[in-house]
Write a structure and sequence with these properties.
- The structure holds 3 protein chains of 3 kinds.
- Chain B has 13 helices and 8 strands.
- By secondary structure, chain B is of the alpha/beta class.
- In chain B, strands 2-1-3-4-8 form a 5-stranded mixed β-sheet. Chain B has a 3-stranded antiparallel β-sheet with strand order 5-6-7, with helices on one face.
- Chain B is globular, with a radius of gyration of 21 Å.
- Chain B starts with a helix and ends in a 24-residue tail after the last helix.
- Chain C contains 5 helices and 15 strands.
- Chain C is globular and about 55 Å long.
- Chain C has a 7-stranded mixed β-sheet with strand order 10-9-8-7-11-12-15. In chain C, strands 1-2-5-4-3-6 form a 6-stranded antiparallel beta barrel. In chain C, strands 13-14 form a two-stranded antiparallel sheet.
- Chain C is an alpha/beta fold.
- The longest helix of chain C has 13 residues.
- In chain C, 47% of the residues are buried.
- The chains are: A alpha+beta, B alpha/beta, C alpha/beta.
Chain lengths: 350, 332, 285
């Protein structure tokens, strides 16, 4: 594995091939409201790296807000393969921090397990993931509580570590190394210890800026004990079941499936983002609704992220990115919920 | 932190609160500068109440929940107090007019608001690469401590919400209410608040295709999360909302994120809420995509005002503008 | 590049026969499409039936034959209403088989007791059918069926046949007494009560420590609670009771998140769960 030290110009060389026709470059840039988000880039100058975490998660580039699953038309009255799957272009998602990289690792494991989701698998196959160490945490971030280091993450094809005016860069997968090999002719090679050292430095600096670190090790696998606890109500009474937390969450992947007719002979079956916070998420055709109350649904969201995926896949499905805290219109703070959960389980919060 | 108005609110409630009463108010969340709604059920809970500059939420929306969906109020033996800014009180009035809540169980507490924050403006002042761990208002200055420990000061005037800058201090509450603070002084001062002309996004002259194109562009980033609908006190078709049923099951819309569906969603909402919307701005505040919804809806408010001489929230006994007709009313 | 197959793409099956079982349930006998292997389908599994432009619904298979499948669809909503309009010669979309099915192969040499509440008889019928095709592998069969009213009783012709089998006990009840009804009335759980049923007729009472009896239960959530109570009262082992759950489903393959209860996805880890497993799952179905 090669490790390089490169200049800003050389970093641009990394990205330019994906600005060509037939490819897409996705990276953080400013939207029309002056906020940072992951967008399709037309010009390298648009990229904004020195900011707090982008508002929106990168999942829409692997799992779009809505996408066609199968379609039909008058020549073929039965449902067919969607053409969308054939037109997926190759893309690079650049500038993902360790929290978002871990989120993609979770989505990879989830979507391809058991019966693999073809749409996600195809998009993922066509995607090169380039991560970056995080130097600008926000006040909502709590990645370290979820076992993630701001300065380092193995779940990327290529990982970039800023150092002053330059970048240290390493290829972590065969795909990443092969790509770097096509570009790195005049790049300066350095020893791996140097990148490790800088990653540790960034982890320390960024971790020290986080508002709090919550030790969850003693409650992992134990949340079922507080399923029937009282404390959930404190949060669910404020919740308005808007689903914004799930839409901005980089690991949330629930979707609805519906058919639509564009004319009497043309239509498709599509999926669209759905949220377990919505009142009708578990509504049966009979009218029976297992999660009819907001308490049920708020508890489900927390139990799913911090317990059920641990039970099923041995993975937290939260990466501490803090977006849920930032976007919640009624101030529900997930860190608060976790601390209350700890207390309810008899674990002290330091 | 010194917050006289909050202390006055707590003092008043402590003196009137009975054992079976409940108070709908806000308390600190764990997030700096963010308050969260809660229900105070005893005198100890009162001490958590916060109000003032960070009171962004319009608590009126929770009232319909009490009366309809979860039916908690039917179990409440006492009264339900609601801590309101004057603009929130307009919403409560409108909900009574809409027969969504029963007036005699609700006790309005309105306080002398001095304007609320626009968190987006605060973030813009700080810069995209920084964030704060503490934030407090001291009279006309906002004091922050950044994550790395650096202190920062921002003048309050720079980060006041647009709706406060546009506030004309008018409200007309015809049910019994308590005003905490000097009401007369507040009304005079508030009309001085209107330092800026209300920002107009959809020009009145815009019609037809031009109007449609602008709406399409503004709404193109909508992800149909329904946050605007859920936070809205005027959207009270709970459990039967047409947006919860995709086209193939009796609804009008698909759940696809498509420009045509996005426009249809918001047009249906605009028209349905226009007679009940008190321009509280919550829809705009909660939109995770930052769509200026309240400013878009203003176009329809102006139409309502012009056509029916009707402004929602102005009285509790007024008829629904779109649903009633008075003899002699000129429809032209 | 290895293209993952599209799991949302249905196969198509022709409808060979239909039958109105009662006022809300219609049966459809389908030709098994070539793309679906009969050997892979087990009782208790389900398929996503679909009509392009109208949607999909998960329907348990009621009978698995060499070249045909039987589905019984209840008219519950707009989509199932549309299915009811289909007739012989029409094609219907099929995705599956999905789910885990009843633990039939682990139940060899056991008595099978099938407890059906109303429409619950629909998936259990596939167990009955399997039993008669593999009778030597099992001991006896007992079918306990509770219908809401006499008009709701389904599979009347098959019931006549079941009553005549020497290795089968069949008991039927309707919720409330009716004019011209001489059979049992009350809930189906009455057959589990040792004081009200005739011990010689109720199979599992003969199996002293219940070690050779498996119970498969399918019915509405309300019924399940009474079943648990009745079984607990006679100390029936929880690991020998299997319940088929229903939950709102969309994708059928454990991805959309609608059907999960705790960490278990009803479409993937279920729909059949042992009562023991259910005790550690949140009651969200």
């Amino acid at each position: 594995m090669h490790t390089y030290q490169i200049s800003k110009n050389q970093l641009n060389q990394l990205l330019e091939p994906y600005l060509q026709v037939g490819a897409h470059l996705i990276a953080p840039s400013l939207n029309s409201l002056g906020q940072v988000s992951y967008n399709k880039i037309q010009n390298i100058n648009e990229i904004a790296l020195n900011t707090c975490i982008p508002l929106k998660p990168p999942k829409s580039y692997l799992f779009p807000e809505s996408s066609t699953l199968v379609q039909f038309d008058e020549k073929n009255p039965h449902l067919l393969e969607s053409d969308a799957s054939h037109s997926i272009q190759k893309q690079m998602i650049f500038g993902l921090r360790p929290c978002d990289l871990s989120a993609i690792a979770y989505l990879d494991a989830f979507f391809t397990s058991n019966i693999s989701d073809h749409d996600y698998a195809q998009r993922r196959e066509n995607t090169l993931i380039v991560g970056i160490a995080c130097e600008y945490p926000s006040n909502a971030c709590f990645c370290t509580s979820m076992g993630i280091e701001p300065g380092n993450c193995a779940n990327a094809d290529i990982f970039v570590v800023p150092q002053g005016q330059e970048y240290l860069i390493e290829g972590l997968t065969v795909k990443g190394q092969e790509y770097l090999a096509t570009l790195s002719k005049d790049w300066k090679e350095i020893s791996p210890e140097l990148i490790t050292g800088r990653k540790n430095e960034i982890t320390e600096q960024s971790s020290s800026k986080l508002i709090e670190h919550i030790d969850l090790s003693k409650i992992r696998g134990r949340l079922n004990e507080i399923y029937a606890s009282d404390f959930w109500n404190k949060y669910s009474e404020a919740c308005i079941a808007c689903g914004a937390c799930t839409f901005d969450c980089p690991t949330c992947s629930c979707f609805d499936v519906n058919d639509t007719l564009k004319s009497s002979t043309v239509g498709c079956r599509y999926r669209s983002w759905d949220s377990c916070s919505f009142g009708d998420f578990t509504l049966h055709a009979s009218g029976h609704n297992p999660r009819s109350s907001k308490l049920h649904r708020l508890r489900q969201r927390i139990m799913h992220k911090y317990h059920y995926t641990v039970e099923k896949m041995d993975l937290w499905s939260c990466t501490g990115c803090g977006r849920c805290i930032r976007v919640c219109p009624v101030g529900i703070n997930t860190r608060s919920i976790l601390k209350d959960a700890k207390e309810a389980l008899g674990e002290p919060n330091n | 932190m010194i917050n006289e108005i909050r202390d006055a609110i707590i003092h008043y409630l402590a003196s009137v609160m009975k054992k079976e009463d409940a108070i709908l108010a806000l308390r600190y969340s764990n997030t700096p500068g963010v308050l969260t709604p809660f229900i105070a059920r005893n005198k100890e809970d009162l001490n958590s109440i916060e109000a003032g500059f960070f009171h962004l939420n319009n608590l009126a929306v929770y009232l319909s929940e009490f009366f309809q969906r979860e039916n908690q109020l039917s179990k409440l033996n006492g009264a339900l107090y609601i801590v309101c800014k004057p603009c929130d009180a307009k919403s409560v009035m409108q909900m009574i007019s809409d027969q969504q809540i029963v007036a005699d169980k609700v006790k309005l507490l309105v306080y002398a608001c001095e304007g609320i924050a626009d968190m987006k403006k605060i973030k813009a002042e700080i810069g995209l690469d920084k964030d704060y761990k503490t934030i407090e208002l001291h009279h006309a200055e906002l004091s922050l401590t950044l994550l790395d420990g650096t202190p920062l000061s921002i003048p309050k005037a720079k980060v006041l919400a647009d709706k406060c800058l546009e506030c004309n201090g008018e409200y007309n509450i015809s049910l019994p209410y308590v005003f905490v603070g000097d009401e007369k002084k507040w009304k005079t001062n508030a009309s001085n608040f209107g330092k800026i002309e209300k920002k107009v996004l959809l020009q009145d002259q815009k019609q037809g295709k031009e109007l449609f194109e602008q709406l399409k562009s503004e709404l193109s980033v909508c992800i149909r999360c329904n946050a605007c609908r859920n936070v809205c006190h005027a959207c009270f078709c709970s459990e039967k909302c047409i947006f919860d049923r995709p086209k193939m099951t009796v609804g009008f819309l698909d759940k696809e994120i498509a420009p045509s569906d996005n426009i249809l969603y918001h047009m249906i909402r605009f028209y349905h809420v226009a007679p009940n919307c008190t321009a509280c701005g919550e829809c705009e505040r909660v939109c995770p995509q930052g769509i200026p919804l309240s400013h878009l809806y203003d176009y329809f408010h102006r139409l309502m005002q012009e056509s029916f001489d009707f402004s929602p929230g102005s009285s509790d006994s007024i008829r629904q503008a779109m649903l009633s007709y008075r003899l002699g009313e000129d429809l032209a | 590049m290895n293209q993952t197959t599209n799991p949302y793409l249905p196969s198509y099956a022709q409808i060979i026969q239909t039958k109105e079982e009662n006022s809300t349930i219609k049966s459809f006998l389908l030709e098994l499409p070539e793309t679906i292997a009969q050997e892979l389908i087990m009782p208790g599994q389900f398929f996503q039936l679909s009509i392009p432009g109208y949607g999909e619904a998960p329907i348990s298979v009621s009978e698995i034959n060499e070249k045909t499948l039987l589905f019984c669809v209840a008219n519950m909503g707009s989509f199932t209403q549309k299915i009811h309009t289909l007739g012989v010669g029409d094609k219907i979309g099929l995705r599956g088989p999905y789910g885990n099915g009843f633990p039939i192969s682990a139940s060899t040499n056991s008595n099978l007791v099938l407890l059906a509440g109303g429409i619950g008889l629909v998936p259990l019928r596939s167990v009955v059918s399997y039993f008669f095709h593999h009778q030597d592998n099992f001991k006896n069969l007992e079918i306990l069926y509770g219908a809401k009213s006499s008009n709701d009783i389904i599979y009347r012709d098959d019931i006549k046949q079941w009553r005549h089998k020497s290795n089968t006990i069949f008991k039927l009840t309707i919720d409330k007494p009716e004019k011209d009804w001489n059979g049992n009335t009350g809930f189906v759980t009455q057959f589990l009560n040792p004081t009200t049923s005739d011990p010689s007729e109720v199979l599992f009472h003969l199996d002293k420590n219940f070690s050779q009896t498996k119970i498969f239960v399918v019915g509405p959530p309300m019924m399940l609670n009474s079943v648990y109570q009745a079984l607990a009262a006679i100390n029936f082992p929880a690991e020998h009771v299997f319940v088929s759950l229903e939950n709102r489903m969309k994708c059928g393959i454990g991805k959309c998140g609608h059907c999960n209860a705790g960490s278990q996805y009803v479409c993937l880890d279920g729909p059949v769960f042992s009562w023991k497993t259910l005790q550690s799952m949140p009651n969200e179905y």
